Structure formats: C-alpha cells, structure tokens
C-alpha cells in the first residue's frame, strides 16, 4: 500500500506533470477552477437555451442578439479571468496566447457588435424604419 506522501495525501490537490516533474495545485486553486468552469459551462448553457427558445418562439434570428446581448457580454467578459489564471500560474498556458484569444472574442462582442448597432441607428432615417430589413437590403 502506498503512503500518503506518494499518492498526494488525499487533500484534494490536483497534480500536473511538468517536464517529468509533478506540480501540485493547491486545494483552493483546484476548487476555484472547478467553480469557474462550472459557472462558465452553466452560463453558456443558459445562453444556448435562450437562443434556441428565441428561435422557436419567433421563428427568425432577427432580434436574437438584442435579446441575448447582456448575457453574452457578461460571460464573454468573465473569460478575462482565464488570462488572470495564466498570469498567477494556476494554469500553465502562455499569458500572451490566452490574452490574444480572449481579447479577440471580447473585441468581437463589444466593439464589432456595437458598430453594427450604430450602423442600424444611423441608417434608419434614410430607409424603411425597420433596422433588420434595411441592413439586409443594402
């Protein structure tokens, strides 16, 4: 039978192999990562269900972004913690690579989506008054 020193002691720490050496995450870091991943999974599940329900109820994608944008922006912005996880060392991934990935998604959700909304507001005075149809016709 192995001793508690050899098997990690059963204190809830997660071990990662790093260059042949075992690196132990503390119980607090492990608990935080589990909480973070469960929360993010639940959030994306809620968002996916909201999108399906919207489409079933309305029968179209028009107005979908408007109905889910707050939830989408919240969970996409919450992903900034992935960069923090890398920076503090609880996840062994490059801060630069993770930062580029997360920031590109945030850029798409916050800035590109707002640019399209701004286009809608500027174009409604010269066309039919229905944003989605005007956008699709141009």
Layout of strands and helices, then pairs:
Elements: E1 14-18, E2 21-25, H1 27-58, H2 64-78, H3 81-88, H4 95-123, H5 131-137
Antiparallel strand pairs: 1-2
Descriptive account of the structure:
With 138 residues, the chain is mainly alpha-helical. The protein has five helices and two strands, in the order E-E-H-H-H-H-H. It has helices at 27-58, 64-78, 81-88, 95-123, 131-137, and strands spanning 14-18, 21-25. It has a two-stranded antiparallel ribbon. Strand 1 (14-18) and strand 2 form a beta hairpin. Helix 1 packs antiparallel against helix 2 (64-78), helix 3 packs antiparallel against helix 4 and helix 4 (95-123) packs across helix 5 (131-137). It is flat, with a radius of gyration of 22 Å. The N and C termini lie far apart (73 Å). Mean pLDDT is 78; it is low at 1-10, 124-129 and 134-138.
What brief labels describe this structure?
disordered N terminus; mainly alpha; 5 helices; 138 residues; two-stranded antiparallel sheet; single chain
- Tell me the total number of β-strands: 2
The radius of gyration over CA amounts to: 22 Å
Strand content: 5-15%
Trace the largest sheet across and list its strands.
1-2
Instruction: For the record, give the distance between the C-alpha atoms at the N and C termini, rounded to a whole number.
Output: 73 Å
Content-based structural category: mainly alpha
State the helix count.
5
Helix content bin: 55-70%
Mean pLDDT: 78
Rough outline: flat
Sequence stretches where pLDDT stays below 50 over 5 or more residues: 1-10, 124-129, 134-138
């Amino acid at each position: 039978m192995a001793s508690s020193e050899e098997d990690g002691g059963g204190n809830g720490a997660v071990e990662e192999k790093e260059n042949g050496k075992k690196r132990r995450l503390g119980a607090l870091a492990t608990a935080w990562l589990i909480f973070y991943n469960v929360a993010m999974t639940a959030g994306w599940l809620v968002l996916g269900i909201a999108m399906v329900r919207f489409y079933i109820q309305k029968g179209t994608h028009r107005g979908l972004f408007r109905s889910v944008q707050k939830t989408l922006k919240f969970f996409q912005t919450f992903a900034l913690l992935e960069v923090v996880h890398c920076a503090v060392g609880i996840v062994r991934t490059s801060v630069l690579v993770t930062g580029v990935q997360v920031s590109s998604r945030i850029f798409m959700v916050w800035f590109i989506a707002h640019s399209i909304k701004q286009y809608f507001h500027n174009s409604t005075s010269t066309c039919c008054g229905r944003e989605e149809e005007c956008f699709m016709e141009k």
